Amino acid sequence: QQPVQSPQAVILREGEDAVINCSSSKALYSVHWYRQKHGEAPVFLMILLKGGEQKGHDKISASFNEKKQQSSLYLTASQLSYSGTYFCGILFSGGYNKLIFGAGTRLAVHP
Amino acid sequence: DGGITQSPKYLFRKEGQNVTLSCEQNLNHDAMYWYRQDPGQGLRLIYYSQIVNDFQKGDIAEGYSVSREKKESFPLTVTSAQKNPTAFYLCASSTSGAAMTGELFFGEGSRLTVL
């Protein structure tokens, strides 16, 4: 049931772009994205509901393809502060309030 | 300031002992959750509660127990039946029914080490 995130890790130079993918084998109701810095609590980035919507948060945006049961997180012109581990959490259709997280993608941005 | 408080931040326990992790929130949220985090495995749901005096098992509930006697409190007990309890434990809360449309607010976590 756990969503599959790819890649597992990404190393960027400041200003470069990255894409993190999250896919599921079951029908999704919503996809949630969080970022966690080392030793800290995860912080909410955005939620995407089924319907193929795309959202943005500063230079971080995401898309949700309901038919393909997958979501992608786009990090544009990365900054040092983007470093951390990104988790997608998925809510299955009919899954009530049970948010299931992926294993995470570690992102490191260097000067 | 509103938020979620977890305690203790670090806890050491001998094998065979039960330990209880505290989670308190003053956000007036109805729903509360416990997640376990291990390296490379992300966040795994242990238990969740949508309302006082009611809770449901998550994916890895074996060896854990919870109670929800008050809206603001959701303590987690790691029992001696938990085979590998060493992990980082995160408590979270959300407004009622809002895991679908609202965010989870996380505490700072409790790191449990079994000696």
Structure description:
The complex is a heterodimer of chains A (111) and B (115). Chain A is mainly β and 111 residues long. Chain A has no helices and eleven strands. In chain A, the strands form two sheets. In chain A, strands 2, 4, 5, 9, 10 and 11 form a six-stranded mixed β-sheet that branches. Chain A has a five-stranded antiparallel β-sheet with strand order 1-3-8-7-6, with no helix packed on it. In chain A, strand 6 and strand 7 form a beta hairpin. Chain A is globular and about 45 Å long. The model of chain A has no long low-confidence stretch (mean pLDDT 88). Chain B has 115 residues and is mainly beta. Helices cover 0% and strands 50% of the residues of chain B. Chain B has no helices and eleven strands. In chain B, the strands form two sheets. In chain B, strands 2, 4, 5, 6, 9, 10 and 11 form a seven-stranded mixed β-sheet that branches. In chain B, strands 1-3-8-7 form a four-stranded antiparallel β-sheet, with no helix packed on it. Chain B is globular and about 40 Å long. Chain A binds chain B through residues 1-2, 29-30, 32, 34, 40-44, 47, 49, 87, 89, 91, 96-104, and chain B through 31, 33, 35, 40-45, 48, 50, 56, 58-59, 90, 94, 97-109.
